[in-house]
Amino acid sequence: xxxxxxxxxxxxxxxxxxxxxxxxxxxxxxxxxxxxxxxxxxxxxxxxxxxxxxxxxxxxxxxxxxxxxxxxxxxxxxxxxxxxxxxxxxxxxxxxxxxxxxxxxxxxxxxxxxxxxxxxxxxxxxxxxxxxxxxxxxxxxxxxxxxxxxxxxxxxxxxxxxxxxxxxxxxxxxxxxxxxxxxxxxxxxxxxxxxxxxxxxxxxxxxxxxxxxxxxxxxxxxxxxxxxxxxxxxxxxxxxxxxxxxxxxxxxxxxxxxxxxxxxxxxxxxxxxxxxxxxxxxxxxxxxxxxxxxxxxxxxxxxxxxxxxxxxxxxxxxxxxxxxxxxxxxxxxxxxxxxxxxxxxxxxxxxxxxxxxxxxxxxxxxxxxxxxxxxxxxxxxxxxxxxxxxxxxxxxxxxxxxxxxxxxxxxxxxxxxxxxxxxxxxx
Length: 427
Ligand code: EPZ
Fold this sequence. Notes:
Elements: E1 3-7, E2 13-17, H1 22-28, E3 39-44, H2 48-59, E4 63-67, E5 76-81, E6 89-90, H3 92-95, H4 105-112, E7 114-118, H5 131-139, E8 143-147, E9 150-154, E10 163-166, H6 172-182, E11 188-192, H7 198-209, E12 213-215, E13 221-225, E14 233-236, H8 241-253, E15 257-261, H9 269-277, E16 281-285, E17 288-292, E18 301-303, H10 315-322, E19 328-332, H11 342-347, E20 352-356, E21 359-363, E22 372-374, H12 378-390, E23 394-398, H13 401-404, H14 410-415, E24 420-424
Parallel strand pairs: 2-15, 3-14, 6-7, 10-11, 18-19, 22-23
Antiparallel strand pairs: 1-23, 1-24, 3-5, 4-5, 7-9, 8-9, 11-13, 12-13, 15-17, 16-17, 19-21, 20-21
Helix pairs in contact: 1-7, 4-6, 5-6, 6-7, 8-10, 8-12, 10-12
Bound molecules: ligand EPZ.
Ligand EPZ binds near residues 133, 313 and 379.
């Protein structure tokens, strides 16, 4: 397994290109299943999960062709085309490696009237149930059966009727599956308390470009008028607001000055507010966002919540930033039940963090010391890199396959702004 080695002490200075958003790409790719025409996605990030999703689409009979990049994009162009589906089954061996595979459930149900998808199971940060995905689909007329670890869904008469569902808990993935199922329904589908993340807006905008009729995009109530068919489209994946926020935290902890090229301030207001609370200079510049810092971070009090609140995907990175800050910072993780796996690893570097249930108190220390640490999940891995960038000496981050799922060309991007970082391939 590859290892990433970071030698701390360098201030990050310069421009960091922000890639297409992983969590947008993973819900845009399954849209190709909704039509027999080609869907071309621009600015697709080079990530393990994107490649994995491409393989899953191929298993279902959807061709995927990677082209080069457009000059104005950092990502690649992929054209996906499901002329006819050869399967409606997403098997366990694929789904268990990539939870986002569950996002083929809605599109397969809409296109083929049936779908058999392995239950994704839990992961490091929580047990990740999919009950809300299934309840929303049932509200639209689907018949759902759970058997031998698989979800078997079908639409009576081959087409969802329509209906209304109010989410008791905001769920990004369940909202995505429900929207993709609804666009080809016979009638109207209404979702209340829907997730409002920018990635959902990206999904809805792409579906509209394909001929879907969706009202309330960006709000908590989505009204989808089913249509008989969708056509192909060309759509550009939004910039990754979590990648951008992650590098912003790296800039702050190293007292650097970076420009996040391609990042959109309007999509990350809570993150930018938290950076300013920590004492960073944050300003919109042409085509991106500048983040600069001198001195130690001020204490922050952050509680994760659905968009537009402070993103759970930013919690670990801000916690790493706070470890060298002044005073005590307080974090509360309200979305996932086990999203402090980075804490024991950060503690190995000399951080002072006290976890009490869903909350964690981080007391700033004067110095961190590099150490061998273990990546446990995607965002936890990034928090270890962030701490390593400011630690004295060398930090070896192991199991970096977690990082490769969500951060494209991480070491290249950091080297380009002065970080002393390298990947050691284990062969
Ligand atoms: C998406 O996961 C993201 N993944 C996650 O990013 C992100 O942390 C999460 O949304 C929250 O923003 C992708 O987009 C691929 P949820 P998702 O459904 O859809 C509970 C990363 O690091 N819930 O919004 O799985 C659930 O347990 C990843 O990039 C149910 O109870 O998250 C959680 O407590 C990690 N039943 C809460 O809702 C359900 O059916 C929010 O989960 C579904 C969810």
